[in-house]
Amino acid sequence: MEKNVVKPYNQLYILSDNNNNCNLVFLAKSLNINVSQLSASEFQAQQSIPSNTLIGIQVKSVISGKSSFNNLLQAVKKCGSVFLFNAERGTIDTSLAINTGLRGIIYRDEQLDRVLSALSNMMKGQLYYSRNELSSFVDRTLAPEESEECLITSEKFLLLTKQEKRITKLIAEGARNKEIADQLNISTHTVKAHISTILRKTQSRNRIELLKITQMDAVSPQTYHA
User: Fold this and answer.
1) pLDDT higher than 90, residue 32
2) Other C-beta atoms within 10 Å of 207: how many?
3) What CATH number was assigned to the domain covering residues 134-219?
4) Apex 22 CA angle, 29 and 107, nearest 5
5) Considering Cα of 137, then 203, then 174, then 182, what sign does the dihedral take?
């Protein structure tokens, strides 16, 4: 049985320079999440951030300007668990966001039920990216020869067969064993056997660690657009 390494968060900080509570705060409260709203200056004045805290950064009000990428990296380094919200689609390099360690991106035009789902899942320790975003990221990670912007620094994934790479891609998209079996026209027993081999070859203990390894082993251009 795989060991569960997902660690939930006990509190949520929302970074926004708006004087009034932003909608995300109200939505978090509706889910009974322990949430606090801070300005950028109030956040920087914090002596320490508990490890069980998730930080939501409002894109336009907090990380606008030329130093946005450096400020984002500093926030991630300080608390380790950050996501962006109120982001405009097409303005953020998703691969770089994943590599940086962002837990997810909530876009400005996201439907209400999706925002609630994003908050709930991220507080449980899960990532929040669309299947297309994760699929694109894993494609670039597992097939660096097809992209000049991505480079595998580890030999772990070079050991995978084409079928194992397909399964790894589907795992990263959030597909369950039965969904993988249906898409690849193989049995669930075969899927389990492939996953066991993938975990062994990549030295991963479970699916979550496998995805983390794909993130750590990929290097993207140092550009950020917000």
Assistant:
1) yes
2) 17
3) 1.10.10.10
4) 95
5) positive
